[in-house]
Amino acid sequence: MRLIIYTGKGGTGKTVTSCATGLKLARRGHRTLVLSADPAHTLADAFMMPEVAYEPRQITDNLVAQQIDPVTEMSKQYNTILSYMASVFSAKGIDETLAYEIAMLPGMTQLFSLLKIQEVSKTGEFDAVVLDMPASGEALRYLYFPKLVGSIGRKLTGLAGLFSGFAKVFQPLAKIPAPSRSVIQSEMDLIDRLDLLADIIRDSNATSLRLVANPDTFSIENAKRALMSASLYGINVDMAVVNKIMAGSSDAYYDRWASFQHGKVEEAKANFYPLPVKEVQLYATELRGMEMLAKHGDQLFGDEDPAKVFYRGQPYVFEKEDAATIRMTVQVPFSEKDDFAIERYGDSLTVSVKTAAGKIVNIVPLPVATAGMKLAKARLQDKQLLVLFEK
């Protein structure tokens, strides 16, 4: 199954670009599903079909659209664990409503939207899935969560196990409920699903992240952060799309805007090199409805298949320099010398990179060959973090 994820700042045209890509895929014979977790029900607006909602809706031949309800998905797949964690806080005297809010881990609604991909992949019903990510695609930062819980948490029976350990110690005094077998089983099932989801999204042959921006500083900077995050998490980015580019005009005011925007397009090409950058002019009419979406798809891809992998990079490379040295290269564009920190924990490496929007953290699994080696040094060179392991 081919997975194409569009991410970018709100208002850049992610939804219409996702829909146009889905329509183009369907017309080339791919059984295609377009998914969106946008709470504004934007798929219905883009296709001009108000019936597009939480149940899959046939749009045209080979094309199905579905609006994901993150709260419903979370209720179906996380409710057992959430109820237990809330009961722990309630036992400490916290109001039940507030207890549920505290028990919610940050970003979980977006993460459960992503879990829909794993569910669809298992059915084998579609050849391609196009995901319209919520603005900025912040859920991608939680894809390192399975590795964190998987490598450390499993040894403690995960999060529920941590609660269980505390519960057994303090239950006589604080009346904290111990987790039931169903709670622990639910959590193990969830971690397994997150592992499978992470494997799908990090498979560069199956999954591509595509950046969407407008020719302005804010959306281009947002797309740069998404590119850094994706590189750090091992997710292949194969394209950038710049929408709503104004044409030149005889009017001085509009011509200045057009000139400014064309300068931003050139800036985007330099920033995102070697990714291909697709340029789309600002349309004379509103971009919605099947006819306009088809036109947008043709503008983006021409005669090319949208399912093609337009660029394939290598986020992590391990090279053996000699019998005593292994070098790891991590792609970290748009970072400076003092922006990163590295720590090794057993068979994994934690890489933290500071950005204007906060810290990005990933856990990189290390090859067995580094087991008897120490982390010797690390340096930043040409948008790459070079890490040396020595015996």
Note down, in words, how this protein is organized.
With about 400 residues, the chain is of the alpha/beta class. It folds into 3 domains: about 1-70 and about 110-145 and about 200-300, P-loop containing nucleotide triphosphate hydrolases (Rossmann fold, 3-Layer(aba) Sandwich); about 80-105 and about 150-200, no CATH class; about 315-390, Immunoglobulin-like (Sandwich). The chain contains 11 helices and 15 strands. The protein has helices spanning about 15-25, 40-45, 70-90, 95-105, 110-125, 145-150, 160-175, 180-200, 215-235, 250-270, 290-300; strands spanning about 1-10, 30-35, 55-60, 65, 130, 205-215, 235-245, 275-280, 315-320, 325-330, 340-345, 350-355, 360-365, 375-380, 385-390. An 8-stranded mixed sheet has the order 3-4-2-5-1-6-7-8, with helices on both faces. Strands 9-10-15-14 form a 4-stranded antiparallel sheet. Strands 11-12-13 form a 3-stranded antiparallel sheet, covered by helices on one side. A hairpin with a 2-residue loop joins strand 14 and strand 15. Helix 3 crosses helix 5, helix 5 (about 110-125) packs across helix 8 and helix 7 (about 160-175) packs antiparallel against helix 8 (about 180-200). It is globular, with a radius of gyration of 23 Å. The model is unreliable at about 150-175 (pLDDT under 50).
